Structures are given as C-alpha cells and as structure tokens.
Amino acid sequence: MNYSPKGMYVWDAWYMSVDDKVHMYHLQQSRTEPDDPKGAQAWIGHAVTSNLIDWEEYEPAFGPDPNNDHDDIRPYTGCAVWYEGRGYFFYTMRGSNDNGRTQAIGLAFSDDGFHWERYSNNPVIIPDQEWYASVGNPIPELLDCRDLVVVADPDGKGWYGYYATRIPGTELPETSVIACVSSVDLIHWEHLPPAFAPNKYAVIEVPDVFKLNGKWYMTCLTGEHYGNRGIFSDPNIREGTIYAVADNPQGPFVELNDNVLIGAHTAALLSCRTVLFKEERYIMYTDRERCNRSDSGGSAYGTISTPKLLDTDGDRLFVKYSPLIELHVIDELITPDKPPVIEQDTELRVWPYHWRMSSVKWVRSADGITGSSRTGWGVLSFDESAESFIYEADITIEEGGSAGLAIRFDDHNYGAIVALDATEQSVFYGETMEFNFVEKRLSKICIARPFHLSIINRLEHVEVYLDDELKLAFSRYRGIGGHIGLFVDRAQARFENIRFRVLNVSRTDI
Fold this sequence. Notes:
Elements: E1 8-18, E2 21-30, E3 44-49, E4 55-62, E5 76-83, E6 86-93, E7 104-110, E8 117-118, E9 146-152, E10 159-166, E11 176-183, E12 190-196, E13 205-212, E14 215-223, E15 239-246, E16 260-264, E17 270-277, E18 280-290, E19 299-304, E20 308-313, E21 316-320, E22 329-334, E23 361-365, E24 368-372, E25 377-385, E26 388-409, E27 415-421, E28 426-432, E29 438-442, E30 450-458, E31 461-466, E32 469-475, E33 483-503
C-alpha cells in the first residue's frame, strides 16, 4: 500500500510507464541517521509496480556526481520519459560550489529504466534571461530552476517542458512562475513565455501538466509556510496542491474560483504527480508523517500514497476514489446484509463527561438507522474495530445540523468524528470530546439529499470522500484501532448502506 524503502522517508516522486510496468523514482531521506546530501540517502530511490498498489523496491537509480562540484549533492525533483525504447531522466542539478543555491536541469539516459548515465553536455536547461530570472535577480545568490515535467506535444511536433523558476519582481510573491520550454528531441530546449504566472504565491513548485477531458491542467504545490497567507480559495487550507486550466499546453494556465485540488490545515500532503495507467489518469502524493509517529512530533516526510483517479466536472478538476485499494480488503465486518452490532451499553455511554442522559434518539429500521437530536450530539457505538479500513454509508440529513461516522473510539469516549455539516456547509474531521483538532473542507451539503460518505483509514493516514470525491487527507495518530459508530449533532439524519471493510496494511518502511 503506502510505500517507502526500508529505513527511509520519501518525498517528491515521479513515474515512468514501460510496457505493463510503472517505474517510480523518488527523493528519500533516512528515518534515523543525520541527513547527508552527498551520501547513500542522497540517491534517488527506485521502485516498480504492475498495479500502482504493490511496489517492489530496487537499488537506488541515480545519485550525485562526485567529480562535478556543480552536480555533487542530492539531485532534486525531475521526471522520466520512456520514448522509442530509451529512457530520458531529467533531474535538478545542485552542487557544492555554491551549496546548492544555483539550480539547473540535467539529463541522463537509460536502456532499461534501472541504470542511468549522465548526458555529457549537462545542463540541458537554465533559465533564459529574456523571460526569466538569473543569479541574483530577483533573489541574491540564488537561482530557482527545478522540478521539470515533460509532456508530448499533442500535434506530434516534439515535447513541452515545465519547471519552477522566477521572473524579476520587487516582492517575492510576484516572482514565482512555472516556465515553459519546448524541444524536438528531448535534449535541446527552447524557452517560451511562462505557462503559469499567478503573481501571488511566494513559491509554486513540483508542477505536473496533463490533458484530461479536452482541457489542459497544471497542478502545483504551495503553502502558507513559504511566505504568504490567504492564498487558498478555502480558508481551512494552509498547505496543498492548487490547479489551473488552459486550452492548450503552452498556456496561459488560469486558476478557477476554487483553486484547491487537495490540501489540509496540518500535516498536509506533498508533491502530487500523475501517471497514465491502463488509459486512466491516476494521482499519487507524499503522505506526511510526524517524527516518532506521534501527533506531538515534528513534521516529517512520509510515504507514497495509494493511487486515486483524476476527473473533471466542466473545467473543475478533482481527485476521485479508486477501487484499486480494494485489492487489500481482507474482511467485511458490516454490509447492508450484515448490519452492525450495537454495543449493549451504548445508551449509557457518556456524551460527554458523566451525566448518563443521551442527547440523541436512535431508531433501527429495515432501511437503516435514524438518529435525531434537537440540542446536543451523540454517538451510536458499534462493536467493530480495525486499524486500517474502509468505512462508508449513505447519509441523509433530514433536518438540522450535522451527521456522519465515528471512528477510533476508546472506552473513555475519546475518538474522531467525520461528518457533513449542513450549517457550516463543510465536511470535517474532529476529535472528541473537545473538538480541538479539526480538519475541514468547504462543501455544499443539502438537506434531504443523500450523500455517500466514506473513510479510508490506513494506520495514521486518513482520507475522507464525499460522493467519491476526495475532500480531506492528512495524518493523525491518536486512537488508531478504536471502535466505530454513527454521529448526529442537532439534526435528524438517516444512515443506509453501512459498510465496514478491513484492509491488510503493513509497514514497509522499517
């Protein structure tokens, strides 16, 4: 499932399809040893899959060149293209001559995807000053030129490339752009005007570009920690991946009113990249972790996520549930034909503290379960539990309020709620009893309309889908393995087609 090499964190990853296999190349860092930008962990990792779920680890694919002080520290992000029986591997060159502050894009070749040899005339791309930045302009002693992604020209005339760089400007958010270059041979590149120049982000990086349902899309990683605030259309998001749309691959790419593809308030995902697999476009990203696998630990890199589908609704791009994860379902504890087992003392559970008086009335019928409350919230507890699972139901808020699914509950009534909120028009994850940890995404929640709410919980990694669209994704450690149930807060809601399936998830990183 989630993948990282033994003993390593993973961050930026990119993919190359060869026949019926997908090769993944990724940046990595030791989980236990101090970082060494010239050591073994500075090599780019390599894994291969035939289903996007199960990965086989191979020897690292590519590393620093100790004989070139412009290319002798950890290569940064790039891409890989398989064309006419040959692999083209683009990477960000960094050197000890200036401690990696001046970047360029290099190239390597392979006949098998496993062994790569540098091009003798690297770098193949440095920013053209007619359009873009130079060393010291706009930033002293620094040149951004990284994260190249390459796509085929749809007219069959060669290739387009996109990379993160800057243009001259007086304030940092005015300068960050995604450059556009073109080539007929994947070796020699000509610069074009910026494909995406939003004029408002301190940093946009790790771009991806693809065509889907007749439109061209660009995704970029950004966040408030780079140096400016209020940059996402959803104020609940602080770090994540935005997207923009264009009619042709050169751009200009333009954001919609809702610019968030995926994101979170804390422990947000990193570095989305996509791959075309069996004629469908899938997206994967880095699922972040916390040091020492504790919610109080510092933010760390993580593992490569399971695959999700990409889809569009008009111009709007969104991430969609992929049933590929169901390859790892090992048990079905609740189905529409096998209803949940309700805990015997559920009406006496303390919601909250110690007054034994429920705020919610629960009624079971042939069609499902209905919960209603005028003034408070409550949970109907089930006996079932698991550390990794798919938990889903059709939920209709008939009046009020909010309703959803309860997970990770212990015997002291501490757990988490994943719910639809018709009052705030959002989907949220909140931890009881105080609800002092909340992840939230704005979403249109209509009264009397059934919604399909589903949770995929893989150990600490949580994903929340609304009608199969990914709304929340983040990591959280508290309560893994607790009981599940239903939740109602100042609402009347009906729960139908409840299903709880156990996933076989084991750690591959230790």
